[in-house]
Amino acid sequence: MTALFTIIIVLFVAVALWQMVKIFDLAQVGTTDSQIADDQDNKINGYLMMGFLVFIYVMTILCFWFIGDLPLLSNAASEHGSEVDNLMVISMVVIFIVQTITQFLLHYFAFKYKGEKGKKAFFYADNNTLEFIWTIIPVIVLAGLIIYGLFTWNDIMNIDEDEDPMVIELYAQQFNWKARYSGEDNVLGKANVRLIDIDRSNILGVDEEDPNAVDDVIVTELHLPVGKPVVFKMRSQDVLHSAYMPHFRAQMNCVPGMVTQFGFTPTVTTSEMRETPEMVDKVKGINELRRERAAAIEESGQDLIYEFDYLLLCNKICGTSHYNMQMKIIVETQEEFDAWMKEQKTFPNSLN
Amino acid sequence: MSATIETHDHEDHAEHHHKETFITKYIFSLDHKMIAKQYLITGTLMGIIGILMSIMFRMQIAWPSEPNVLFEALLGKWAPDGVMSADVYLALVTIHGTIMVFFVLTAGLSGTFSNLLIPLQIGARDMASGFLNMVSYWLFFISCVIMVGSLFVEAGPAAAGWTIYPPLSALPMASGGSGLGMTLWLVSMAIFIASSLIGALNYIVTVINMRTKGMSMTRLPLTIWAFFVTAVIGVVSFPVLLSAALLLIMDRSFGTSFFLSDIFIQGEVLHYQGGSPVLFEHLFWFLGHPEVYIVILPAMGLVSEIMATNSRKPIFGYRAMIASILAIAFLSTIVWGHHMFVSGMNPFLGSVFTFTTLLIAIPSAVKAFNWITTLWKGNLQMNPAMLFSIGFVSTFITGGLTGIILGDSALDINVHDTYFVIAHFHLVMGISALYGMFAGIYHWYPKMFGRMMNKNLGYIHFWITAICAYGVFFPMHFIGMAGLPRRYYTNSSFPLFDDLTNTNVVITIFAIIGGIAQIIYLYNFFVSIFYGKKAEQNPWRSTTLEWTTPVEHVHGNWPGAIPHVYRWSYDYSKPGHDVDFVPQNIPLMEGEEELQH
After folding, report:
1. What is the ipTM, given to two decimal places?
2. Inter-chain contact A52–B466, Cβ cutoff 8 Å?
3. B161, B177 in Cβ contact below 8 A?
């Protein structure tokens, strides 16, 4: 089916091209065989430039209209997320204004000043005032963006130890994620890949001698209590991975041989997020699409009906199954979290 | 209008001419014009491979894991029953990136036009060292052969992304492509770097020492400024990649631990201890980021020159253009960390790199405004080269603006390594540089081959390409903002992204049409070599020195003495002259003042 579709497109394009060449050939009858643009060419291409400007604007509008309903841009689920989104919106507005104006000038000038035989261009080589103006305007705008950006960045990256964040280890390996909670003492037991013992199912290489490890809990599904600051300590056992949690505006690489960290405070529980109008719409749309290709989805073993969940994705190329390296994140109330935590085995109990 | 040419050394050169055999003329040529053509044709062939690969992986993204006749035909045993595997997908994106960035847009673009234009526009008989120039090309050729050869390795070519971050690239057990395929990739790149270093040194020496009488640095066309500064950036940054590649080879083959530490893979602990992949990232991007400017600066130079010629106006703000080239070159070497905001490096470094990165927007904005002002009140000759130049400015602005988001560390956290990045850099350096290259080819084709390309095919080529370029990369920004990571073989394991499926199909259709449109160009290019209309000496009525050389190439460029230069290269439509251009070799008229620039 795809092949047929592709072939039809190819044929269609080929016919279109052939027709266009013919039109251009016909337009050439009676003119000289010079391959240098004449007034006719200048005129046609000048108008096409204006057409292209319209194309750019229409494309922008279409993109915002159809694929611009970005739940990701409006539904941050972490405390710093709304700050990031504000900065994003401001930057986007600046970009949008500059883009609209400069593209207009560029294409409009290309149309307005299209060449004519005998016309002479305006000899205009330099103007220091103009140069100064368009150096200083970007300087001011960028200074604003840089300062705002740096404050936001420092806010995000400086983890406030006074808030007593919950310490969780994210552990990456080809091609799955594990999480290790630090337990009551909020201190992770020491760990190194050299201590990994598959036979005893010490898969994270946690030091059994370390008293801090006694209450550690290793899981494959990440649960977070809402409103509680978390700091993730990240490790990788084999290659680079990146822990990407788009809904929380969070990302950090996991680097073998070192521990990296990223902290945030989740603010919206999974069930609350599922009920936001944007998410209800999005999920409805997705499920409509999924029903259209129900057979293929069921064959692949996925559930047909999609229900929203926060996700941790791998976002650094890590090998064959990179595209399927994920872990579910559940944000819940403190009570639900405590109840779930009680059911989990502590590290010493999980060993064989 | 033509130069006053003395003929006293005509015979010397005629003699050189006769000694040439087929091999010395077409294969092991020392002549910069022939070497430029060799670079161009090799770059074109590599470009065909690179673009074909991109069409294949775009098809995979649009119609994941569906049988495809194209895959069956081209990938053979790697696509059993026409279904592409995940490893092959990663290999395709890796080699596509490598080929396009290094082999097409570095060697193909800079190699072609630096070689062609530096001696011709500064008024030199050839490069400082014709022999090194030849060596440079043939090293490039060998590296191409090795890179293409790596596609036929049993376990597949390198598949760790074009950035080849270790440990993925260092450990054969981590990825099929990290065996012999990666070894060949590294060897190919090492040779490629040697080639570009030799080339760059040659360009620098030639520009500094071999300018004709009167050709001061402030009379140089902006093309030469761009090539010169590009060569300097190359000399500063390429050796660092070479060292990274050599250290990686040592880690891979001799058991050192520069980039590796504490690794447990496939049931065993490896001996590596104390190294850091982040070090590799620093070394890689210390070249990797300047590389972006190595790609884009020559395109900027070509576009500046073509825009001035076809607007029949001087380039606006000549001094500001040079200053911004220098500013970009300087800043380009201190911004590499913006690729590494979330790599685990110290967040304070992130702040510094945000600051330096956003500074680059200033000289870039100055350039964009100057190009637009160059068009203002011009007499625009819409030759295909001019269309591609205007297209260049358009995509450079669209792509460049989103750099404000990516360069801002706080925002980069969320769009890092998503399709937003793909959209950004493809527009700002991929498509833009490709447009610059096309503009250069259409413009200097008469100089290279003595014939004209067909303009109507050029127009069709431009308009289809322009629409498809936006059609492919504009929607990608939105996919990226929705959180879709790059380098995913299929997105179907994430129902979260199901609503992006249709957009991906649209993008792929644009990509296919855009790819097919390049056939028009290839047809035009190759057929015109033999059947194009014979070119006049100065078809675009340009002021620069290359158009004072005869259409038929001669060894030594000018049959007579080298012309002297009396004015800058942008005397278009100068008041007081009857014609709308005054070549650089025409002395100032009595009472005429050279513009104070």
Report:
1. 0.92
2. yes
3. no
Distance CA A20, CA A29 (A): 15
**Which of A17, A19, A35 to substitute to test the interface with B, most B CBs within 10 Å?**
A35
- Sketch the domain layout of chain B as residue ranges: 31-548
B277 and A258 Cβ atoms separated by less than 8 Å = no
CA atoms within 13 A on the CB side of B557: 26
The whole-angstrom distance between A193's CA and the closest CA on chain B is 6
Scan residues 280-299 of B and list those with Cβ closer than 8 Å to A. none
pLDDT digits (tens, 9 = 90+) for B545-575: 999 999 998 889 999 899 999 999 999 999 8
How many domains is chain A built from? 1
Which chain A residues touch B328 with a CB distance below 8 Å? none
Does residue A42 form part of some domain? Answer: no
Q: Is residue A50 a part of any domain in this protein?
A: no
Query: Is A64 inside a domain boundary?
Result: no
pLDDT digit string (tens) for B445-487?
A: 999 999 999 999 999 999 999 999 999 999 999 999 988 999 9
CATH number of the domain within which A262 lies = 2.60.40.420
In a domain, A221, yes or no: yes
Contact B552, B539 (CB under 8 A): no
Q: Which domain holds residue A335?
A: 161-350
Q: Do A125 and B401 count as a contact with CB atoms less than 8 A apart?
A: no
pLDDT single digits (tens) B227-269: 999 999 999 999 999 999 999 999 999 999 999 999 999 889 9
- Shortest CB distance from A302 goes to which of B383, B471, B495? B495
Q: How confident is residue B21, by pLDDT bands cut at 50, 70 and 90? A: confident
Q: What is the CATH number of domain B31-548?
A: 1.20.210.10
Contact in structure between A169 and A161 (CB atoms under 8 Å):
no
- The partner residue sitting opposite A121, judged by closest CB among B358, B466, B580, is B580
Within 570-589 of B, beta carbons closer than 8 Å to A belong to 570, 572-575, 580
